[in-house]
Amino acid sequence: MDSNDKDTLNNLRHSAAHLLAAAVMQLYPNAKRTIGPAIEDGFYYDFDFGETKISEEDFSKIERKMAEILPSWSGFERHELSADEAKKEYPNNEYKQELIDEFTQNGEKVTFYKSGEYWDLCKGGHVENPSKEIGAFKLLSIAGAYWRGSEKNKQSLASNAARMKAKMLTRIYGTAFPTQKELDDYLKMLEEAKRRDHRKLGKELDLFVFSDLVGAGLPLFTPKGTILRDKLFEFSESLQLAEGYQKVWIPHITKTELYKKSGHWDKFGSELFLVKSQETDDQFVLKPMNCPHHIQIYASRKRSYKDLPIRYMETTVQYRDEKAGEMLGLSRVRSISIDDAHIFVKPDQIEEEFRKIMNMVKQMYEALNMKFKARLSFRDDSDKYLGDKKDWENAQSVLEDVAKKLKINYFLAEGEAAFYGPKIDIMVTDSLGREWQCATEQLDFVQPARFGITYTDEDGKEKTPYLIHKALLGSIERFLSVYIEHTGGAFPVWLSPVQVKIIPISDKNLEYSRKVMEQLREKNIRVELDDRAETMQSKIRAAQMQKVPYMLIIGGREEEAKKVAVRKRNGEDLGALDLEEFVNKLQAEIESKS
Fold it and tell me: What are the backbone dihedrals phi and psi of residue 529, each rounded to the nearest 5 degrees, phi first?
């Protein structure tokens, strides 16, 4: 089995979900099964256990039963049943009956898969011989879940369907691998991920907080967290300014007409925060994206082919009314800070602009010590996209040609495009081997046409420009959730909120320590002085816990020699250095972003 093949692993894990359900039904015969899909890195199965309470303490019992059943599972037999036949298999299970009604509404049959003595309603996707191919499995966690993700009917339970949707189910998460070693490696990674959890580190390093009075999904950044944000955005802006981008500014609210014209209202209307004026009848929204606003700046005057490309950039906040159950730390928030940019180009300028963008992406992620590859996110055959399909084919061809010419490591992903055009998503790999989408570069031929913007070409005719959407970091909140975990909070010197911690050995050394601190501040070094009445070792441990890159230990010998004893956060001792020598070394490290 190729454990690196995603489809193969999905089939293995979906098979393990069946195995979990089989064990549960033997142990808890009154439980009601619902659905059990494979997911990223594992699987889950949702159950209605009625009055029975299940906890993670029950996992060992369930795993033993799974191990007992597995040897008898030599394959999956496929069976087709009519709706009436299928419903007889679940006489008291309203969840499965709802699925059967849905799948057979036009008279179709449904498929069941049997392994050993267990069978279940299923569309398929299994390994051929689970007893040999499911080498190792582990139940990981338990959570509450609503049937088909809906909890909106709590107050109105007039129907059976409403009661089902309002009832909290028990979701059991697990994972499976072809070998025990792969499972062990994964579990070790999970432990390390817990240690690096950005929510835990954000609190320990005093980077951001949440307040119930402010609201869920609305992070508040502390002075240290704000330094981290600012330095990242400054770097992004410096890369863009060097390539001819111009800064603009737009307000945070707009009339709903803007997004109706752009198409966002129809596509994302349920995600918009509505704003009501007390002075007029105008209906406003908090902006969920910035492109329609930037288009209005472009549309404010006549444009010539000589003006293009026009590159607008803005570091700003946009807002999405995310579902309460989907918000998680900084990973998914309602206020999204983004280093956004929009480039208005002629067709023959697209390749050059993408070349410049990808060069900026390379500089950004090399400085952050993060490997990346490009996902070419194209449309599928569904009707969820705007614009002519032939325009889509041409645009997708342009993007793939650019990727090939620039020799970008890329892969295709159908169905992942924005509703108005294909895009290049930058997929970064963190230090634990996990892949995340951060930056995105999108080619848009729909919105310029919807807003009727033009430029006068060389032949004197009015033409419609293409629009490129660009972000190097994307959502800074989402990026920080990835980057904090990637670094474990040990940021490079240029990004560290505190770059140097001064540690006087005793109160006798405080005066000299303060002078050193002032000299470092004059050189724009972010420095703190630990003058607490604690031992030197205690202060060193505290600085290491705060991930401060450099500590300057100052005692009588250092003060007498007018030097500082330099220690790195990893414990490496650089010995006594002249302050000027240390500052030069530090500034060189900051400047090079090493």
Answer: -110, 125
Q: Provide the b/e sequence for 336-371 (b: ≥16 CB within 10 Å).
A: bbbbbbbbbbeeebbbebbebbbebbebbbebbebe
Distance CA 442, CA 406 (A): 16
Report if residue 579 sits inside a domain: yes
For 220, what's the count of Cα atoms within 13 Å in the CB-facing half-sphere?
9
- Cα–Cα distance measured from residue 138 to residue 280, given in angstroms and rounded to the nearest whole number: 59
Among 209, 191, 233, 193, residue whose Cα is nearest residue 333:
209
CA distances in angstroms from 315 to 23, 336, 366, 420, 480, listed in the order given: 52, 10, 21, 22, 15
Alpha carbons within 13 angstroms on the beta-carbon side of residue 334 total: 17
Return the DSSP state at 465.
Answer: P
Residue 173 CB neighbours (<10 A): 17
Residue with tokens 């070998």: 179
- The residue range of the domain holding 88 is 6-190
Q: Could you give the CA distance from residue 231 to residue 145 in angstroms, rounded to a whole number?
A: 39
Q: 272 or 395, which is more confident?
A: 272
414-424 confidence digits (pLDDT tens): 888 888 788 89
β-bridge mates for residue 171, sequence order: 46, 143
pLDDT in tens, 467-506: 999 999 999 999 999 999 999 999 999 999 999 999 999 9
Q: Which residues pair with 475 in a beta bridge?
A: 338
Q: What distance in Å separates the CA atoms of residue 586 and residue 261, rounded to the nearest whole number?
A: 52
Q: Which two tokens stand for residue 216?
A: 């869920």
| CA–CA distance, 118 with 136 (Å, rounded to integer) | 20
Least confident of 77-91, 128-142, 143-157, 365-379: 143-157
How many angstroms separate the CA atoms of 501 and 520, rounded? Answer: 11
Quick one: which of 339, 247, 292 has its CA closest to 453?
292
β-strand partners of 299: none
Question: Is 458 contained in some domain?
Answer: yes
Q: Tokens 């990223």 map to which residue? A: 40
Contact 436, 401 (CB under 8 A): no
Cβ–Cβ under 8 Å, residues 372 and 423: no
Cβ neighbour number for residue 453 with a 10 Å cutoff: 18
251 lies in the same domain as 398? yes
Domain identity same for 215 and 160: no
Q: What is this structure's pTM?
A: 0.84
In a domain, 493, yes or no: no
Same domain membership, residue 215 and residue 126: no
3-state SS, 147-184, equals: HHHCCCCCCCCCCHHHHHHHCEEEEEEEEEECCHHHHH
**Chain Cα centroid distance, residue 221:** 19
CATH of the domain at 525: 3.40.50.800
Q: Do 209 and 182 reside in the same domain of the chain?
A: no
Chain CA centroid to CA 368, Å:
17
State how beta strands 500-504 and 527-529 pair: parallel
For 9-18, 60-69, 148-157, 440-449, which range has the lowest pLDDT when averaged over its residues?
A: 148-157
pLDDT value of position 156: 36
